[in-house]
Amino acid sequence: MAETAHDQGPTAASGPADSFDTERALATLRSLCVPDMAGRAPGSAGHDRATRFLVSELTGSGLSPVLEHFAISGVLRLSAPPYCRADGPAGVRDLVHRAEFAEHPRSATMPAPVSGVASAEPGPGRWAIVRGPSQGPDFAELADELTARGVVGILVAQHADASGYLTKRVQGPPPVQLPVVALLPELLDAVTDAAVTAHVPLERAPAVGANIIATLPGRAPDARPILLSAHYDGVGSDPELHFPCAGDNASGAAVLCETARVLSRAEPLGRPLIFALLDAEEMGTLGSGHHARQLSEAQVRPDVLNIDMAGKFNGKVAVELGPADPPPDGLIAALDAAGRHLGIPLHAAPVASDNRRYAASGFPSAGVGLGAAHYHSPLDSPERIEPDALRRAGQLTLATIRHLAAHG
């Protein structure tokens, strides 16, 4: 998609776009990010509170949301604060969780502390230092070999992200046979030949996901619907550290809720509008996969607009198109018309989110992303959300929907 200019598009996308209340959206976002929501990981009490809160938000807009449940085989979570200690020639050092060490998604369970000397030469009773890749089948084979050699665990390297934290993950492939702990790459040298004791109680807990679905009828009830989606789950908080998950993706959920409020109070659109607050995006887009299957089985083929990360405006909006109807009536035309009228530049770029599940089902789809100051980090907080980014995302969403409803 080429960047839009600042001229008028095929329609003057006014009206609902001008009614987007940024302060209301910010209030919704802040509510989703409080410590009681605990990072909104599926299977947690905080996630359930977030679900109930969002149902009440849509109900307050006059909608009748329903919950669409699906099974999740396992969510990675820490059952207690982890620790990792190195006792070497320079003395005893307690490493800082998430800043210097972290759980690894391939790790076996670690019900009790594990101790041993860290060494690049694997041997009985030692932690094996592994500097190569720690994913894929090769790593599983290596873990099997190290198990046969009698090592007690594996130490691997993980780089910190731009926030200075080791990324938190809530999904992963099947565990290997040994405990695995990730350290900053430079710390692998520092702990070599030191006695390392670690307790990283990583669990894989089954959960039930919950998509929140609400429909706003249109003037032509049999017309093809428009689907607006955003995921509301997050990566969950650590036992000792809160992850607000503001940009990713309380921001998108807040845009959806405010869009629902505006459109539910406006004149009915020409086409039905489905609002989908999706669960388990962080688990591999499980919620949108479930919803796409439900729609396909019902032989419903909507135009899909998915919002993921609307917390920071970097000068232009990323748009990833899936299957799309050609101009003048499809998503491309609607987004271009809205962007041109509002003076919001759009550019083609990857948006790796729920839009891809809908695209894989053959639905006309577009993923829209502005950005976030931080990602899967404790710093992804409401204080770092740009109100202007929320405003632009909301206005673009409303104008795009309006164009689709009038021309699709």
UniProtKB/TrEMBL annotation:
This is M28 family metallopeptidase. InterPro entries: M28_fam, Peptidase_M28. Coiled coil: none annotated. The lineage of its organism: Bacteria, Bacillati, Actinomycetota, Actinomycetes, Kitasatosporales. Residues 211-400 form the Peptidase M28 domain. It holds the Pfam family Peptidase_M28. It comes from the Bacteria. PANTHER family: METALLOPEPTIDASE M28 FAMILY MEMBER, PEPTIDASE M28 DOMAIN-CONTAINING PROTEIN.
